[in-house]
Amino acid sequence: MPHRRIAVTGLGVICSLGHNVPDAWEALRAGRPAITPFDGPELAKLRFQNAARVCNFDPAAHFPLTMVDHLDRFAQFALIAAREAAQDAGISWTPELRQRAAVITGSSIGGQSTQDVQFWDVYHLGRERVHPLTIPRTMPNAGASQISMEFGITGPVFTLSTACSSSNHAIGVALQLLRGGGADIAIAGGSEAPLSFGMLKAWEAMRVVSPDVCRPFCRDRKGIILGEGAGMLILEPLDAARARGAHIYAELAGAGMSSDAAHITQPTVDGPVRAIRGAIADAGLRLEQVGYINAHGTGTPGNDPAETRAIREVFGPLADRIPVSSTKSMHGHALGAAGAIEAVATLLAMRDGVLPPTANFTEPDPACDLDYIPNVARTARIEAALSNSFAFGGLNAVLAFRSVNS
Amino acid sequence: MPDELAEKVIGILASVKHIPREKITLQNSLAELGFDSLDTISMLFELENAFQVSIPDESARSIRYVHEIVDGIRTLQSAGPSKPPAEPLPTN
User: Fold this and answer.
1) A218 carries an active-site annotation
2) Is the pLDDT of residue B88 over 50?
3) Chain A partners of B56 at a C-beta cutoff of 8 Å?
4) In which element (H, E) is residue A234 found?
5) Which residues pair with A226 in a beta bridge?
6) I need a labelling partner for A224 at 20 to 30 A (CA). Which of A306, A349, A364, B24 fits?
């Protein structure tokens, strides 16, 4: 029996490129990265100085102060993106729909910024007490729960955590939940706010962070640039979306998931290959229909050649004709939010027929020999697109989107 | 013969990789000793702690042999103790 087709009818985003979809999309189209130095004296003690931060952000402009007290930065981002997506989709909430609605979010580390501050006080300042809101702010499902409370959503609500693939896994699981009839509408995506000092020191020790900018697939790439933010999609059955006259960005046509079962941080080629093939098969796509791939493209020595080889293995000679870009070159690597922010970029690319580039591009690594859309966006009609996420832990999740106009 | 500094480096490598120190010579490569990427960053962390130095990412990436580690630590130590930048960076 053919499964229910699922549409994307709303988008929300907040990241270093902008606090909403129009601002972020303008920067993505322009190929304009938003990577800036840290402020704060303790942050000068880091080996790297730049991140893709959400700047000029005032929580009080979005939430009453009593609510701000309950929200870690990652949950604030989740709510802001969910509000924008729900508004964009023009959902008419009814008691019945609220019971049949789901929220599935991804987050790699939850509210660790809150934990960092509170535990500093205990360990370092010798304080005897931790703030009582530490647990409700820190728990990784805080974002999903806050979204459910905001909209009165009483169906399935949960968070999954698969490091840098978290939100692609969340969106993929939401797709399967909706197909299976477990819900009639879903808010799915992810959020992350990993730029606390303790987390930054931990990333520094991993020696994968670039001292300047992120140059995916380039010979002189030096690693990731950490980012923060959130992306959220509204997903609902295609027939229901059409019946209510909603704007449809594209069909979320498939998801593919795999595990490397190899090394806790070093990627394989085979794992990503199986996830990409899985997404294409789940979507019922032919290889030649894929007109754009939003790459995982971290800018690390390990990922970029492995991802390139995986794309070549799946697409064969067709790989030379498929434009691939890493928008992490602009919004950084937002870890558990990365897949959702990149899904938003991919859907906007399909809507407008504009492929965002890989920014900061110098010259390609010989081991990375695809068309990476260097520095300048490109016009193209896209029938179908993929968005890749490959996580530490060897956990891979790939989403496939198909235009509903074709 | 390894000197005191080299002996200390070898001790750290042995402890990180949980292998007998007698198995490690200055001519060994990290690959021969079975160090993967995570073993290597753990080793760099222990070296920085033990010798009170800061090993830049660029140098860390080019290290292949045990003797290169010993030479690198010696160079960093002769350059004096590591100090973080005192002033916060300008922002934009």
Assistant:
1) no
2) no
3) 47
4) strand A229-237
5) A333
6) A349
